[in-house]
Amino acid sequence: MQEIAKDILKKYYGYSSFRKGQEQIITSILEGNDTFVIMPTGGGKSLCYQIPAMILEGITIVVSPLISLMKDQVDTLNNLGIPAACINSSISTKEVDNTIEKARDGEYKLLYVAPERLEVNSFIDLLNSLEISQIAIDEAHCVSQWGHDFRTSYRVIAPVINTLRKRPIISAFTATATENVKEDIIKLLTLKSPNTYVTGFDRKNLCFRVIKNENKKDFILKYVEDNNNTSGIIYAATRKEVDNLYELLKQKGYEIGKYHAGMNDSERNENQEKFLYDDYKIIVATNAFGMGIDKSNVRYVIHYNMTKNMEAYYQEAGRAGRDEEPSECILLFSPRDVMIQKYLIEQTILNPERKYLEYKKLQEMVDYCHTSQCLRKYILEYFGENNIPDKCDNCSNCKDDSELKDITIEAQKIFSCIYRMNQRYGTSMIADVLRGSKNKKVLNMKFDKLSTYGIIKDYTIKEIKDLINVLIADQYLMITEGEYPVVKLRQKSIEVIKNKRKVMQKISRRKEKVEIDNSLFDELRILRREIAERQKVPPYIIFADSSLKEMSTLLPTNKEEMLHVKGVGETKFERYGEEFLKSITNYMEQNNIIKKDKGQHNYIEEKQSSNKKEKIPSHIISLNMYKEGMGLAKIAESRELKIATVKDHIIKCALEGYEVNFDGLIPEKYENLILEKINEIGCEKLTPIKKELPDEVEYNDIKAVICKYKCLKSKNIS
Ligand code: ADP
């Protein structure tokens, strides 16, 4: 039996070994036991009921809560050569009838259904006319009110099973289950002395990071720019915040989608589909997005706000890296997040006992953000695992290489200014006074007469505000709740003023790139996309990123070698193998690559090309495209460059004397202001000009204005 299971794993899925727990779970089901599995998101649950479904006589019914997930899973299975279908409300009656007929004829090994379907009598008749080997219940925690996604229709599953003429094997799967949810599932689904498997919660390929004391928007902009070729999810706490982030990134030219409960169904579906199909690399969403999202190549999940508890965090963050490739889960913390979550708890109609529980869970989440121990250890211990090593070397605490900067002087200036302003103002006003702003409010209040007026000149307003936030997070200052939060001093800050305590700030040396691309990998992705469009399925259903990456390093040139690539099984090879082989051999020819050595340890050697083609400089290529009327974002996308780089290219061309139309390069709104500042300050150095302008004006914009008005004295703009 186990041998057959292994053969199926290789032949259909193209994998050569089982992951932790999978083999035991499959054996348990094949031996006829009810089986209950708790495995983290991305752990590989589906395979645990699909392989028994293939081996057992008859059909497996899979109960699954989300229609989008169902279609995806069925597409994936069909692509692997496994006969499967689904029945749900998005399918026409005619199609449903057709599927039912085929199911009766024994044409499917798996039939996916939404739980609501079990409330339809005619469907129960159908079930009774089939030979059902197994009923697999996905997202089983939906049956429990204590779980976080309770669905009433899950409560009909057990009664339906009990009316069946013959009781099939029942298997139930979930990613999150605390002790009481676990008991609930077993009881409410009437599992009969189930074999229970809790595989470890660890996801080794995920790197966990908590970022505090940084400007969140700046972080996101930089991160997204550095990773603009990879897929990511950005979660935010509220619809408004999602809309704001969406606009911010959209303005920068990113192809991006959004998803929240304030949008209508069709908008949501369109955004989700485009993300699944890689038309959108990024999606910004509230927690309404994601259940059942099986996209395997999500390289990062950023939480713009802290979640309400660890369960929600781990589930959402776990959507990164399902293909086991290195991926990042980043949480951006700010003290305001705690206030939002507290407010949300206060708004609920939970009884006091549940509220208390929610507050406790929230505190555990806050502790995650502040702990200096290994983040992975914290998570795994939270989920009840023991004997976890102290260091994982793959989280921001284990890899902390930040430098400490002494900011005592700056802190003293800030504290004494707050004190002189009678601790009655918010961050912006304090920053204005410290910077010496001539803003009306400052002058009206006569703050320009304070000794602390204008004592921090070498920081921008934004930098001063960020500094105040750091001091709040590190508990030197406190911020009051309410609509107009006021910053006040704490005991710790008094000690700093009295020179009894130093203030140190952690400055992280960031390395934001998630992966290094290689150009064959990019070509294979393009091919995958073409095939996906042809077949109308999301690209990752054709091959996972990890498979393409392996192809681009192993360079298979025949069927046998191709079948060694992880994720390439017989059926997939028959469907797509030749096309990918062709693309790989073409690439090798074009780039004069010969493979040396056979077997597992291939390596690549690039032959020195004797007749090197003359290359057109990169910046000129960008200019040519720009002249043909392509927008900056489009050029960036097609050349796989950053937008800022394309802008730089075009400015460089202008400096070299090429004719350039500046209209698309300079933000209209700021053109005059930038020019004004250049005339005031001169254009020898850009930083002093930048400091005088609103934050959203970029260095590039200033350079473009300088070029346009030819007010530059030297061509070496620094
Ligand atoms: P989940 O537990 O979240 O339902 P899935 O079943 O969707 O996870 O599996 C996540 C990914 O891991 C899928 O892309 C799947 O093909 C892959 N996978 C599952 N089992 C294995 C295995 N034994 N070897 C390699 N990849 C696997």
Keywords for this entry:
Rossmann fold, globular, 4 domains, alpha/beta, 31 helices, 718 residues, Arc Repressor Mutant, subunit A, binds adenosine-5'-diphosphate, 6-stranded parallel β-sheet
Could you walk me through the main structural features you see in this protein, from its secondary elements to its overall organization?
The protein has 718 residues and is an alpha/beta fold. It folds into 4 domains: 2-198, P-loop containing nucleotide triphosphate hydrolases (Rossmann fold), CATH 3.40.50; 206-399, 3-Layer(aba) Sandwich (Rossmann fold), CATH 3.40.50.300; 403-507, Winged helix-like DNA-binding domain superfamily/Winged helix DNA-binding domain (Arc Repressor Mutant, subunit A), CATH 1.10.10.10; 518-615, DNA polymerase, domain 1 (Orthogonal Bundle), CATH 1.10.150. Helices cover 46% and strands 12% of the residues. The chain is built from 31 helices and 19 strands. The strands form 5 sheets. Strands 3-4-2-5-6-1-7 form a 7-stranded parallel sheet, with helices on both faces. Helix 16 crosses helix 17, helix 21 packs across helix 25 and helix 28 packs parallel to helix 31. The radius of gyration is 29 Å and the shape is globular. It starts with a helix and ends in a 10-residue tail after the last helix. Bound molecules: adenosine-5'-diphosphate. Adenosine-5'-diphosphate is lined by residues 15, 18-19, 22, 39, 41-47, 294, 296, 322-323, 544.
